[in-house]
Give the backbone structure.
Amino acid sequence: MPVPEIAQSFVGSVNRVTLGALPENGGTRTSTITIGGAKNVVYAGSFSDAGEKPVVAMDVLDTAPLDWPDELAKVYKDLWESPEQWAAKCVEEYGADMICLKFDGIHPDKGDKSPADAVKTTQDVLKTVGVPLVLWGCGNNDKDNKVMPEVSQAAKGENCLIGTVEEDNYKSLTAIALADNHHLITGAPLDINIAKQINILVSDMGFPTEKIVTFQSTGALGYGIEYAYSIGERQRLATLSGDKMMSMPVICDVGYESWRVKEAKLNDIPSWGDPADRGPMWEATTAICLLQAGADIIRMRHPRAVAMVKNYIDQIWQ
Amino acid sequence: MALTGLDIFKLLPKSNCKKCGMPTCLAFAMQLAQKRAELSSCPCVSEEAKQALEAAAAPPVRLIKFGAGAGQVQIGQETVLFRHEEKFHNPSVLAATVSDGLSDDELAKRIAAVNALQFERVGAKIGATAVAVTNESGSAEKFAAVAAKVADNVKLAMVLCSDSPEAVSAALAKTAQFVPLIASANETNADQMAALAKANKCPLVAKASTLDALADLTEKIKAIGVEDIVINLDCQTLREQLYGLTRIRVLALKKAFRSLGYPTMSVVATGTADKQVAAATSLVCKFAGIVVIETVEPSAFLPLLTTIMNIYSDPQKPVQVEPKLYSIGDTNANSPVLFTTNFSLTYYTVESDVEASRVPAHILVVDTEGTSVLTAYSGDKLNEKAVADAIKKFNVEDIVSHRKLILPGYVAVMSGKLEEATGWEVMVGPRESSMIPKYLQEVWSNGGN
């Protein structure tokens, strides 16, 4: 029995965004990444409606992390003093599509590193790996405003993804990202209205909406993922209905959120299974859940979780 | 699909006889559409109209139950494509496999492993909800013996997985009273499997590799007299599976396509545990009613069960934690007391940051009806009285010997009133939860205490 056809009436699609600049485009990247392009809800319509493959951006910190659980820390701890070698390992051994350089160390409470330190880290990583970069501030507005413009300049021409700008702090980073020709991450605290508002504010400054990637905040599995999930689905529906201020690709921060939960961290609970398995499983399931709601870039940490997610993506987006 | 008042009106006698108590047939139709009246109130309605209206009132995805007693589960009766539109109603059933090819020793171990898949998370019990006995031996006797043993030793709903009617028949002879789900009927064995399902009053899985073939198969099974059907789109790739499940849900909800208006079952029993977990996670999110999985590692089940819990939570109701005094770490009478609200996201963020501080501390959770700190404050659900009541109710003054209360930085403005209402010294904590570790380590440990 032939089943009925399902008619489509969507008018919008997720913006297609290319990150990274090759030498012929004024950068030094050896590869670029293109994301977005979906013109349906996840897994509806034809395979080609899904657009570009989602990608994994692996986290590299500019300082030795103090609070990483053992199972995660042991993978990287020999590389903590050298973000560029850390990044190289993620790209060469773990297949990172991008590197997210996270400037935790500039935070006044986490090392208070100087703009010069951050610039050097950026340059070192740019020299060592060829994939496109995400450059992500520390979350302290004053310090981000001091440091991130210099980081942006140091990566000028590389077409990085830089952020985040928030409703109450967007002007300086937006201006410098525009000048240095980067893409920009607009952040909102699990609130779809603020998400749209910050996109409007940034575009009012003349920043092109097609160069924005949105960050709606991420909840880990078991710790609020359902909010991020439904915001993801609602954002996709808004995109498909033609809302240009909501048509950006989406980035999620899965690594940070999933490695701070009990299930990934605690060691002495045998009924939960081997701690060596739990953390990677938690990170991977969090990422795969969010892929069901339409994520385009996923920030991750553990190589086994990255392998699970990349294998999953390869099965679905061919 | 729901009929409008006018659709219903067309099916009524249009005699305006008023016997239903309404002035006109149109008024009655409108009441019916809003489910404020029953069709039985109309004595004149034709048999044909009755059938049409009943069919329209049937749920677009049929509700299926299997298992007996406390182990019974139900799936289906879903109404939306996206959870934010209303909610997903009946959580996916996660079924662990038990093969009939195992030796007695292995079987006992496997059963113990399946029985261990029960956890407690945020005050709720979650766990494997079904066990799927597979007929890898190919022997009907072995299948029946293992099914009987599983039924006796695992108090979960059971799925009998075999394409052989002989094997299913033998297993049903020993387990029919547990109402197992029979998996599965296919194009070649449908007549026999449907006869077994009908005779034993058990639901039946229809398995085919395309939607067209599935629709044919469910119609065939239904014609034999089995209405409780679960469908299994048995295609080659996970990708086809996910697109297929999405299409099934859309066809059932938006096209009222009855032949696929059943809950679904998916099987991910091959590959590494990592690969199975990845596939099962996506299937749970994308409408699978039952996921049969081969791994029985707790580290695989816990995230999958949590996924089910989260995706099937009600988006209209904020998830709350129980208001009380929580002790994090090895606390004593000198440990700091922080208060926050009972919105689960707020609480878990604070809890995780307090844990990260490695400073044992009490968290006083104030009942704010599941709202966050700022929302609760602006809605006057978080005020000095609510905090003072919580201190009293949870005997905080007996538990700690000091009288210092750490308040969330965002509501520093309530410090004065709070000191008056409680008699405690109020210390203004950080605005962002992520700064709690630093606060506890530096401010509390060095000066506050």
